[in-house]
């Protein structure tokens, strides 16, 4: 089995930096993905960490520490359009096949 | 590419009726996923296919739910009979083999309301 924890809500100011944390408990861990979902929209893939360290994609970065079972998504130079829900998702081995399980999501509100 | 296509976008039905949701994955993607999203339970994986074969259906709530993938370009999720608690947004997603599940492309979803 597995469990994922991430904060339910975060508020940050436009132009600032925000970090959204994700901790997990699972066996057969392969990697951690991040998705963004705007209200009324579909989740869209942001990044993936299969190894420890930082992955950078423009204003977004994602970090993974496998020894700490912890990762985070870092959003820089926040824009109003970044207001959305952000999900971490664990890719894991589950009885001989792989599966992906999503966290409950963090609702980010960017304020002027 | 048109992305993942789902139909219908909205469905309102009465309790006890059969509901069929449809999905066309991105061409060339080997994996297809069905998810259900609600406020209370978040995004739940119902079932996923690899090369048209169901791999993990442990998330299918009960026998009222069934999913098929008769070919690489089409899948259905059927609920029979439907119940009010099935009201949710149902997403279909697909993934390429090289991404091995972690980079999924979601369709726009079907918002199902069962009255």
Quick rundown:
The complex is a heterodimer of chains A (112) and B (115). By secondary structure, chain A is mainly β.
What's the topology here?
The complex is a heterodimer of chains A (112) and B (115).
Chain A lengths: L1 E4 L3 E5 L4 E9 L2 E9 L6 E6 L3 E5 L2 E6 L4 E6 L8 E11 L2 E6 L3 E6 L1
Parallel strand pairs in A: 2-11
Antiparallel strand pairs in A: 1-3, 3-8, 4-5, 4-9, 6-7, 7-8, 9-10, 9-11
Chain B lengths: L4 E3 L2 E4 L5 E6 L6 E8 L3 E9 L2 E4 L8 E7 L2 E6 L8 E8 L9 E2 L3 E5 L1
Parallel strand pairs in B: 2-11
Antiparallel strand pairs in B: 1-3, 3-8, 4-5, 4-9, 5-6, 7-8, 9-10, 9-11
Give structural notes.
The complex is a heterodimer of chains A (112) and B (115). Chain A is mainly β. In chain A, 0% of the residues lie in helices and 65% in strands. Chain A has strands at 2-5, 9-13, 18-26, 29-37, 44-49, 53-57, 60-65, 70-75, 84-94, 97-102, 106-111. In chain A, strands 2, 4, 5, 9, 10 and 11 form a 6-stranded mixed β-sheet that branches. In chain A, strands 1-3-8-7-6 form a 5-stranded antiparallel β-sheet, with no helix packed on it. In chain A, strand 4 and strand 5 (44-49) form a beta hairpin. With 115 residues, chain B is mainly β. Chain B has strands at residues 5-7, 10-13, 19-24, 31-38, 42-50, 53-56, 65-71, 74-79, 88-95, 105-106, 110-114. The model of chain B has no long low-confidence stretch (mean pLDDT 94). At the A-B interface, strand 4, strand 5, strand 9 and strand 10 of A face strand 5 and strand 10 of B.
Distance between the termini of chain A: 41 Å
Average pLDDT reading of chain A = 93
Strand content of chain A: over 45%
> How many individual helices of chain A?
0
User: What is the H/E string of chain B?
Assistant: EEEEEEEEEEE
Overall body shape of chain B: globular
Helix content of chain A: under 10%
Kindly state the percentage of residues in helix of chain B: under 10%
Order of helices and strands of chain A: EEEEEEEEEEE
Question: Which spans of chain B of ≥5 residues are poorly predicted at pLDDT below 50?
Answer: none
Largest interface: chains, residues each: A-B, 23 and 20 residues
Structural class of chain B: mainly beta
The profile of the biggest β sheet of chain B is:
7 strands, mixed
Q: Let me know the average pLDDT of chain B.
A: 94
Oligomer: heterodimer
How many strands in all of chain B? 11
For the report, how would you describe the main beta sheet of chain A? 6 strands, mixed
Structural class of chain A: mainly beta
Distinct helical segment count of chain B: 0
Radius of gyration of chain A: 14 Å
The global form of chain A is: globular
